[in-house]
Amino acid sequence: MSPDRAPVGARFRRFRERLTAEGPERFGGPGQRAGYGAPHPPGDVEPVDRPRRRGRKDGGGEQLNVPPAEFTSYYGRPILKAPVWKWDIAAYLFTGGLAAGSSMLAAGGQLTGRPALRRAGRVAALAAVSASAYFLVNDLGKPSRFHHMLRVAKLTSPMSVGTWILTAFGPAAGLAAVAEAAPWLPERGVLGLARRLLPPVGQTAGLLAATTAPALATYTGVLLADTAVPSWHEAYPELPTIFAGSALASGAGVGLIAAPPAQAGPARRLAVAGAALELWGSHRVENRLGLLSEPYTVGTAGRLLRAGRALTAAGVAGALVGRRSRALSALSGGALLAAAVCTRFGIFHGGVASAKDPKYTVVPQRERARQRDGQTPDDSGPGAGPNPG
C-alpha cells in the first residue's frame, strides 16, 4: 500500500458519509441498490417466486441447482470385500451341525436304552466331525494353521472359541464311536481288556460330546454374525437359532434312517423340535431385517431356503405319520438331512450376495442416520428397491 493513500477504514467512512448526504441514487441510479446495479422491481409488480434454497428456514443457504446424487458405488466396486470362503465352508457349517445333532441323538439313545439309536448317532458324529476337520483344514490351506490357533484362547473371538470347541468335541465323539466296536474284539488278552473297558469309557465320552454339542451347533452362527457382511451381521439373533434347529433336525434324520421304528421315538421328537426352531428362525430372517432380508429371498439363497423349508416340513410329517414304517421313516430322515444342507448353503449364499451389492451396506446406514436425526426413513429413495440384477 502506498504511504500517501488513506487507510481502508477511513476511506469507507468517507464513502458512507457521502452515501448518506447524496442518497443511493447517486451511486446506483433510480430504483437500484447502491454499488450493485441490481434493479428493484416496481411497487405495482407482483414478486416472482424464487427457487427454494436448502439451508436456513428464512430462505438463506445454498440454492439447490442439481438433484441429489444417486449412489451406486466407487467406480463400480463393492463397498465390502465379499467373503473369500467357498463351498467347503458351507459344507463345514452342515457337517458341524450334523456332528452335534448326532451326538445328542446318541446320548438320548444311551440314556433311554436304545442301542441302535446310540450306535447310529455315535458313528455319524465321528464321520461328520472328521469331515468338518477336513473342510476346515482345506479352507485354511495348511493343517498347521489349525494347530497355531490353539496357541491362544480368546473368548471374544468366535473363531478361537470354535477351535477349542471342535478340539474338545472331536476326541470325545471319536472315543464314543470306537467303543461301539468293543463287541467285535476277542475276549482274552490285551484286546479282551479293551473290550471290557471301552463300553464304560464310551458312555462317559458320549455324554461329554453331547455336553459340548450345543456349542458346536451354534458357534458357527455367531461366527457369521460377527462379520461385517450385512445380512449375516443384522441376523445375529436368528442365526444361532437356525443352526441349532438345523443340527437337531439333521441328527434326527440320522436316527430315522438307521434305527428301527420301535427305537426312533427320540429321533421323531428331536425332528419336531429342530424343525420348529429352524422354521421360526428362517421366517424371521426373511421378514424382520427389512432390506437386508432380500438376499435370503431371491437368487440362489432364496431357492435353497424355500427348498429347505419344504423338505423340513415333509420330513417332520413323514416322521410323525410313518411311526411303523421303516421305509417312510428312512425317507423322512433323508428329507431332513437334505433340508439341513439347503438351509446352511442358503444362509451362506445370502450373506455373500449381500456383501457384493453396495445397497445392502449404504441404504441401512442412511436409514440409521435418519433415525438418529429424528427423521422418517425413506424407503423409496435411490437403491431402496429390489436389486434389478
UniProtKB/TrEMBL annotation:
<feature type="region of interest" description="Disordered">
    <location>
        <begin position="359"/>
        <end position="389"/>
    </location>
</feature>
<keyword id="KW-0472">Membrane</keyword>
<dbReference type="InterPro" id="IPR052049">
    <property type="entry name" value="Electron_transfer_protein"/>
</dbReference>
<keyword id="KW-1003">Cell membrane</keyword>
<keyword id="KW-1133">Transmembrane helix</keyword>
<dbReference type="InterPro" id="IPR005614">
    <property type="entry name" value="NrfD-like"/>
</dbReference>
<comment type="similarity">
    <text>Belongs to the NrfD family.</text>
</comment>
<keyword id="KW-0812">Transmembrane</keyword>
<dbReference type="Pfam" id="PF03916">
    <property type="entry name" value="NrfD"/>
</dbReference>
<feature type="region of interest" description="Disordered">
    <location>
        <begin position="1"/>
        <end position="67"/>
    </location>
</feature>
<feature type="compositionally biased region" description="Basic and acidic residues">
    <location>
        <begin position="365"/>
        <end position="375"/>
    </location>
</feature>
<protein>
    <submittedName>
        <fullName>Polysulfide reductase NrfD</fullName>
    </submittedName>
</protein>
